[in-house]
Each structure stands twice: as C-alpha cells, then as structure tokens.
Specification:
Shape: globular
Strand order of the largest sheet: 1-6-5-2-4-3
Order of helices and strands: EEHHEEHEHEH
Structural class: alpha/beta
Distance between the termini: 18 Å
Radius of gyration: 14 Å
Bound molecules: adenosine-5-diphosphoribose
Strand content: 15-25%
Number of helices: 5
Largest sheet: 6 strands, mixed
Length: 167
Amino acid sequence: MAIIDVIKDDITRLDVDAIVNAANSRLAGGGGVDGAIHRAAGPELPVACRDIGGCPTGEAVITAGFLLPAKHIIHTVGPVYRGGHRNEPELLANCYRNSMLLAAQNNVSTIAFPNISTGIYGYPKEEAARIAISEVKKFMDENTTPQRVIFVCFDDENYQIYSSVLS
Ligand code: APR
C-alpha cells in the first residue's frame, strides 16, 4: 500500500533506502540541503559526483549514501524560479518523476524528498508543494515501488503547507 508522510526533520538523519538531494547541475555541492548532505556523507561523495560529471535540470542521478544512514542519494536539479513562465513547473515535476523512476529502478522502497527548489532557487513554496505532491501521487498510482514517500520539511512554513495540501 502506498504511504505518504510529512515530517519536520534534517533529511541527513534519516535511515531510509534513499534520500533526494536538491543539487546543482555540476553536482558540485553547495549550501542548503546539498551542503548538509555533502558534509554528512563524507569525502567519497564529491568523488562519485565528479565521476558522474553533471546532471541537467529536471533529471536525476544516483550515488551511494556513503557515511549517511541512507543507502542511496538521488541527486536531482530543480529549476531556478524566474517568474514561473520559463518551464519551471514542468522542470520541477520532472525532478520528482525522474527521482521516483530512478528509485524504482534501484528497488528503493522508502524515499525521502526535501522541498526541492524552495530555498536558494526561490520557488514559491505552496506552488512547489502542489507539484511535488501531485507528481508523487501520480507515480505511486501507476507503480508499486517506492512504497513509501516521506516529504521532509526543514522550515515550519513548508511543514504547514505540506500538511494542509495533503489533508
Ligand atoms: N534537511 C532537509 N531540508 C533542508 C535541509 C536539511 N538538512 N537544509 C535545508 N533544507 C531545505 C530548505 O529549507 C529548503 O526548503 O531544503 C529546501 C531546498 O532548499 P535549498 O537547499 O536551498 O535547495 P534549492 O532551493 O533547490 O537550491 C539548490 O542550492 O545548495 C545549493 O548546490 C545547491 O545550487 C543548488 C541550490
């Protein structure tokens, strides 16, 4: 049975099959959740990212979790929000769909997502939450894996938005 949960936590602490990183297209590490994941995963993560080379906006790649409790990290690159008429909604939906697809291909049964693009990349939080939830629900309606999705909110505002959109 498909399960969707919302929690308020630091995604790097979660002992799940895969956590998703809100990366940049060079997979070079950065601030926000990307910085937290790189710090917690340790020095082998940038090496693995360099070997992959990069990831276009809306797509996703997978690495090991290294020193994280999570087994895998799925790195996806959200769109920078520039007003909403530059394909941002489609690109953000692609991040969720492609991350779910990569998770399914790697037998990930539980996957945790941060609120992609809603930090440094400036995506309005409620619009982003609606896209995230509808894309994940659509995928779970059509596929049996992953069985459980956890939306991990770091700030109160996103936690309130996700809780109300999902209820
Ligand atoms: N756990 C969960 N969520 C977190 C954590 C954490 N440890 N740290 C930050 N967040 C949340 C933020 O509160 C925000 O809601 O992740 C969400 C996404 O914010 P950013 O990390 O700023 O990601 P994004 O907006 O997609 O920008 C990506 O930032 O760090 C760079 O390299 C990254 O260039 C890329 C850009």
